Amino acid sequence: MPRPAPSSVTSRAVAPARGEPVAPRTAPSDGRPAAAPGRPPDCARCRRAVRVPTTDRDRLDDPEAVAGLVVPLLGAADREHCVAVMLDTKHRVLEAITVSVGSLDHTFMSPREILRDALLANAAAVVVAHNHPSGDPEPSRDDERVTRRIVEAGRVVGVEVLDHLVVGGGTWVSLARRGLV
Ligand SMILES: [Zn+2]
């Protein structure tokens, strides 16, 4: 687990309950370099929780809007990246976090990691996305299975999982549109 900077620990400690206004984060507050827009974050050392600061406060209410945010982040990655877009109660973007990066022995897209980051971000809802470096965005059986587990786990802890997008070859598939979310 990455060690948050003291400032972010403080802001989490005083974070208001869900539903109250959340003070905007002055990202990046943790001193780490921000990822360049349109480029997946470099997480060779750290497998997860590379924060992608976003000033985008639009509502992400449909898959097209989500794709507009995550396709530039994931499109050029040569390994599988799982990104979770954290949203407030009005489905506006709080931040996007690279939760995990695929490797040979990966436990990719673990509901535990996604929901841990969502709770730490004080998110009311989350959209999950990952890429297929092969270029084929067709979700695998595993993708469908893990999506159901993430949705179910989100229900238990009170984080609404709105969608799961699979990105590949410059296009994407929405698992919500397929009725799996
Ligand atoms: Zn997949």
Structure overview:
It is built from four helices and six strands. By secondary structure, the protein is an alpha+beta fold. It has a single domain (48-174), classed as Cytidine Deaminase, domain 2. The chain has a six-stranded mixed beta sheet with strand order 1-3-2-4-5-6, with helices on both faces. Mean pLDDT is 76; it is low at 3-47. Bound molecules: zinc ion (ZN). Zinc ion is lined by residues 130, 132, 140, 143, 166.
Shape: globular
Q: What is the oligomeric state here? A: single chain
Amount of beta strand: 15-25%
Any idea of the CATH topology? Answer: Cytidine Deaminase, domain 2
Q: Report helical residue fraction.
A: 25-40%
SSE pattern: HEHEEHEHEE
Please indicate the count of domains.
1
The span between the termini is 28 Å
CATH architecture: 3-Layer(aba) Sandwich
Ranges with pLDDT <50 over ≥5 residues?
3-47
Q: Provide a count of the helices.
A: 4
Q: Which cofactor or ligand species appear?
A: zinc ion
| Rg computed from alpha carbons, rounded to a whole number of angstroms | 15 Å
CATH first level: Alpha Beta
The biggest beta sheet reads: 6 strands, mixed
CATH homolog superfamily: Cytidine Deaminase, domain 2
| Secondary structure category | alpha+beta
pLDDT averaged residue by residue? 76
Strand order of the largest sheet: 1-3-2-4-5-6
Strand tally is: 6
